[in-house]
Amino acid sequence: MRSVGRAVYLLVCLTFPASIFAADQAAQVQRGQLIFLQKCMMCHQITGLGVPPIYPPVAKSDWLLADRERAIKVLCEGLSGPIQVNGKSYTNVMPAQVLDDQQVADVLTYATNSWGGHAPAFTDDEVKAARSKTKFKTYAVLLQATAFQPLPKPPAGWKIRAVASLPEFCTRFAGHGGKYVFVLAQFGGVYRLDVETGALTLIIKPSDYLDLTRGDLSALGMTQDAEGRLWIITNQRIVEGLEFVMNEVVFHRTSEMNDGIPSQPKVWFKTSYPFGVGPYNHGVSNLAFGPDGLLYVSSGSRTDGGETGKDSHYSAAGEVDITACIWRLDPKSDAPKIEVLARGIRNAYGFAWDGAGRLFSVTNGPDADAPEELDCIEPGRHYGFPFQFSNWPIEPGKPYAHTPPPPQGLEFTLPVANLGPAGGGKPDAPLFTFDAHSSPAGMMWCGDDFPKPLRGGFLVTRFGNLLGESHAPEDVGFDLLSCHLEKNADGKWLTHTATVLAPLGRPIDVIGTRDGRILVLEYTRPTNFKDKLGWLPGRILELAPE
Questions:
Q1: Number of domains in the chain
Q2: What is the dihedral of CA 527, 530, 534, 535, to 10 degrees?
Q3: pTM summary value
């Protein structure tokens, strides 16, 4: 098929003026870039350099260029390693990508003609022919395989329903538990969900308040204040005119509400710091108002485990003062200042307060196989990163050769001990706190308005493993857990953890309603990693008492 593709390429060049062909291929590359950002960037990175030795590069990839038919088939049916790319070995799993023939052609044309690469454009006919030799045969067959999975069985005394299907990948809920819930899309759009009818309305478009031409952008945090205003936080990778690539963090806030629709968001506050040295710019994600009325924000790490990096375009400073920590800001200020509440928190995508006003967070661990953490966050404390992970001993080479020694005299607060039966813990072998690579995400507190057995505990969604069988031989996560906490005789926190819903399609957030119902935001559709299926936007589920 490679010779056929080149023949088509040469025929087009001879038949049409070069300027027309250049315009057509430029349009194809532009379409492919958007697909790459949506589908491929998480693993292969915006630079195309991947994450050695886990995810291979696509930038100037000899493996990608060597066999066009093979490259197409990988997107259409997935791939299990090992493979050799640019002289390095990679052993992992890539799922099939849910793209039609033209989209596969577009994204491969982008990948092979970016970052200094040059190759003939891929065509939809070329993709169709290669796809017919895969296990899915056609795009229609692949679509059927990646349809929404059956609803998981609810716990006794509860019922479950699918409320709405999502038109794009979404990352966060916000609301006060009434008729409407707001849903944040990954690229900054905001939808309003009518919980009863399932009607999903786009009320804020990214173009209403964001400049997407400045750099790649992700929106990971949204909350609603007592006045009904929405607060949205974005991360944007800024390159032009700077010594180092930077992550620009911007807080956006709406003002008045009109018939329940927030106004166009305006910039309230912005800051920036050097972008991550590898694929680990976790950015700023969750934000929520605390019992004290202040705004709390999770700022993830810019490294995996304190590594400095070698690319001259990226700062080799490791973590900086406002990363791997939780911030606190005054929402009433016109010139707010960042107060760092606690440090050593690698990537707390979710945090929430219990009924006594104590703050807890769930944190994603490193590519090394340390457990994920549930932490009780107290002002001024340090939670280990990048010196200590979970309750692992602090010693040379754990978890990495580059793990820095902790500053003398610095004390660390250990995570909550999980006694199980879910999440990896056992009464006789506590885990601090969840299965490695299970990716805890959104969390919420179930107060007195929720029925038993959830009342008086946290709900935690777990996005699920991403690193392949070498790190997680069995699928972990893809579920909703309940965590009921107590202190032992030594004053240390313990959690009794149970599964509420499983399996789920990479659940990323959870929110409650005033009458005790629970909404779960599924990011995508596959409910495990091992089936190697690609991603399509997920759905919103409702768990309600019978």
A1: 2
A2: 30
A3: 0.81
